Amino acid sequence: MGIIVGYYSTKFGELWDKSLFDLVEEAINGVIKQTQIEKKQIDVIFFANMLAGVLENNLHSASKIAEIIGLNIPVFRVEAACASGGVAFHLAENYIANHQNKTALVIGAEKMTDYSPEQVTAALSAAASGEEQEAGLTFPGLYALIAQVYLNKYHYNEENLAYVSFKNHYHGTLNEKAHFQKKLTLEQILKSPYVAYPLKVLDSSPISDGAAALIITNNQQIIKKTKHQVKIIASEVATDTISLKERKFLDRLLATSLAAEKAFKKSKIKKKDIQVAEIHDCFSIAELLAMEDLGFWPKGRAGTKIKELSTMIGKGNNLFVNTSGGLKAAGHPVGATGVKQIGEIYLQLTKQAGKRQVKKAKYGLAHNVGGSGGTAVVTILGG
């Protein structure tokens, strides 16, 4: 079992003056300084990135990271669409679990705003099936189809979706590194333009730049010297078909349910024990599905439960969701997102979350999704 001993994130947003590897270097230096270890104590690096090969014509990023850090150690680039960060963390945890006295650095980074929306949309669409791409379906279109099925089946409307953005933008105001730090009203969300019916601009996560890094170790010397530590209780991955048309259900993401089932079984804790969760809200419908698929809310009830604001800081009292602002407000530099989610749970459990700190948080969960649900990672931290 690995221990997380350090976390650092750059600001997320439109970072015009920084390149992808400027962000990577900031994250590396930041987490090493925060942890107060020496670079030479790092044994392996896992780098999560989706788009550098498509947008920047750069696929040998592992060697560039070795150049930045100045070490001749193994560096692995991990790509699993928007779940790249979660999968990189999963692989790092497995590496640590199978090697004694080792330390892994997990980095997630993405540079997206230097390119046109058309270029970025086309690049992101590479995570959909070939048939979906040929039909002209982008991810807003795919999630819009899922949203239509869900809303129709359970008799909800666009207002139920809007409460997700309302909550997460409030949380974003408490996070100094969030892409957006402005409250939204329900009226503003509901009046924003449609991207793909019923999803609107303010139902959708933004195109962002950013990087995040974690250090995992089972090296007892490092563990004894570090101040803030969190145990990795479970990290599980599941997959599903890449095409929506091949799925039995469109009102759930099966990969999430399967990964959650495995993670809770391994962790031996109950869902009610989770006090804080970072959930993959690439679109507002995604958070509603996840709350049900993870088992926090009964199937078909998320549309009603979200309006109670029971997962919002200052309103709820048991489970708080997307305290970072989620993908919606904190931003979504796709390779960095899964690492940031786990990092937010680390901050919460070590009482370093500042204005958004959840009191007495003992266990937390991070949920990272690739594509329209083709990959899901569920990570549980505690102790």
Secondary-structure map:
Blueprint: E1 3-9, H1 20-35, E2 44-48, H2 52-55, H3 61-69, E3 75-78, H4 84-97, E4 103-110, H5 117-124, H6 130-134, H7 139-154, H8 158-172, H9 186-191, E5 194-196, E6 199-200, E7 210-217, H10 220-225, E8 230-239, H11 254-267, E9 276-278, H12 284-293, H13 302-305, E10 320-321, H14 326-330, H15 334-349, E11 363-370, E12 375-382
Parallel strand pairs: 2-3, 2-4, 9-10, 9-11
Antiparallel strand pairs: 1-7, 1-8, 4-7, 5-6, 8-12, 11-12
Helix pairs in contact: 1-3, 4-15, 8-12
How would you describe the overall organization of this protein?
This protein is of the alpha/beta class and 383 residues long. It folds into 2 domains: 3-116 and 208-230, 3-Layer(aba) Sandwich (Peroxisomal Thiolase, Chain A, domain 1); 139-204 and 233-382, Peroxisomal Thiolase, Chain A, domain 1 (3-Layer(aba) Sandwich). Helices cover 39% and strands 18% of the residues. The protein contains 15 helices and 12 strands. The strands form 2 sheets. The protein has a 10-stranded mixed sheet, with helices on both faces. A two-stranded antiparallel ribbon has the order 5-6. Helix 1 (20-35) packs across helix 3 (61-69), helix 4 (84-97) crosses helix 15 (334-349) and helix 8 (158-172) packs across helix 12 (284-293). The relative contact order is 0.20. The mean pLDDT is 97.
